[in-house]
Amino acid sequence: MQKGNIRVQTENIFPIIKKFLYSEHDIFIRELVSNAVDATQKLKTLSSLGEAKGELDDLTIDIQLDTEKKTITISDKGVGMTGEEVDKYLNQVAFSGAEEFLKKYKGQNETNIIGHFGLGFYSAFMVSERVDVITKSYRENAQAVKWECDGSPEYTLEDAEKADRGTDIVLHINEESTEFLDAERIRTTLKKFCRFLPIPIRFEGNQINNPQPAWTKKPSELTSQDYQDFYKELYPYSEAPLFWIHLNVDYPFNLTGILYFPKIKQSYEIQKDKIQLYSNQVFVTDEVSDIVPEFLMLLHGVLDSPDIPLNVSRSYLQGDPNVKKINNHITKKVADKLEEIFTKERKEFEEKWESLGLFVKYGMMTDDKFLEKATKFHIMEDVKGGKFYTLEEYRAATEALQKNKNEQLVILYTTNPVQQDSYIQQAQAKGFVVVKLETIVDAAFINQMETKWEKVHFTRVDADIVDNLIDKADASGSVLTSDEESALAALFDRQLPELHVTVEVKGLSPEAPPVIATRPEFMRRMKDMAAMNGAMGGFYANMPDEVTLTVNGNHPIYQTILKEGDRSKQEKLVHNLSDLALLSQGLLKGNNLTYFIQRSVDLMGGEAKSKIILEA
């Protein structure tokens, strides 16, 4: 029997391993099972080259839990080790056998060797008071050996009995880690880290992994149903995805994967961190913000790149040139796929726009390369429903009517077709085209596109009276005298603490409403943006809502109001007209809304009724 000290640079390495090597202690399962897969893949490579003789037989990796003995055993039927190899690989910390193997056999076989572990085996000591390794090499007439270590630099190595090639690693779980003696805990961890490893893995008699997940196959080998089934395997309780993109790159970096566009019912039903990162089918992380462009963090799916190490860090991702290339490639692939669907299957693209629009708009705001491509397939839906316009199609449809004196295209939009219906109808009566921009990203999108699209300006349909939506029109004649106009303006002048009201009297068409409430575009936009930013809204969030009341002096109702002898009734009528206008903008709330209801009933001659209504 051989005794000795593990050759390490410091005797304090084991406390360091136990506490600081990995942030999550369950990572030992990933490391040890990955090493077992590594050993099995090596055997398959050697067998294919004729260097390992005999049948491979069943290569399944077994994990066994013995709660009485307080052990977890991980068994593989891979290459195994001789006594010399145990001494070399286990007694020299941070020596990676996988890396040496790769150098020797590079280019001879496509089988991936996981490798890159270094200290991976020693993660066993994070949860173990003792680790036993019983191993037998694939080499003919090899002698099985047993290695034991109790977490100190001291070990024993002696001959052992083992019938078959391969390695058994027996972890004697320590008192602080008894949570790992629970079968469900082991099963959950195996599902997390090992569900797609390329060698079958069995726990308690059941195979827990899919060794050939969809992303490892060629797109030509997969049907639409295969992609749908794999999505369900990843996200069992999610609705079917809109569509997917299969990535398969081997130069200048290695990347495979499938990204799915999920269906988003509501703008606020957004879930990030749904993309899983693997390295040769070993789970690494679901925090992929540096690998995937920010606007595509809403996607679901899997990325696999052997160029990214298992023990990945933010600083590594931010500094590695391959990561930037992967990021750019994903952006390009997504843009190409969206353009392809838009071009070939536009009807389907339009039907899915409610969900797709969030991705596209977010990308156009944050990535100029994506913006360049996406402008061709970004679409806006006519408020009438069913008709969609690209920017150029909207420009062509509105060229004659919706270009202002600065030669800018004016895109008229609504954020609430029901609430803003009267304004929409007036705009449509003029021949204007109004589109819907009503998602949570649209306020920011509009601001961004005005700086990025040439000669384009957005105006909400209720930002001004219809005659002024494109350009300020010259005031038409009013049937009122200047004194009557002044008297009318004075009647409409109200002090409301939560609103900043400006009153103007204009001579509009007699058929136009008697009062129109509009919200100037700039200030309303700033308020909307501030509301989205919550507590960070700052200055604009605390400003009162700004509203302009345009009094149509040509409406016949004012002839009646101005002749009304009862000043109190005159004021009530005017207040009701302004309240109706404010109500159309959703700006009449609380006490003001209550007084409006009471006043309306009073004006109809039913003061008793008003009391009943208020009490009810």
Automatic annotation (TrEMBL):
Descriptive protein name: Chaperone protein HtpG
Organism of provenance: Puia dinghuensis
UniProt-recorded Gene Ontology molecular function terms: ATP binding; ATP hydrolysis activity; ATP-dependent protein folding chaperone; unfolded protein binding
Keyword field: ATP-binding, Chaperone, Cytoplasm, Nucleotide-binding, Stress response
Listed InterPro entries: HATPase_C_sf (IPR036890), HSP90_C (IPR037196), Hsp90_fam (IPR001404), Hsp90_N (IPR020575), Ribosomal_Su5_D2-typ_SF (IPR020568)
Any Pfam family matching the protein: HSP90
Lineage, top ranks: Bacteria, Pseudomonadati, Bacteroidota, Chitinophagia, Chitinophagales
Family, per entry: Belongs to the heat shock protein 90 family.
Binding residue positions for ATP: 31, 35, 76, 81, 96-97, 167, 314
Origin: domain of life: Bacteria
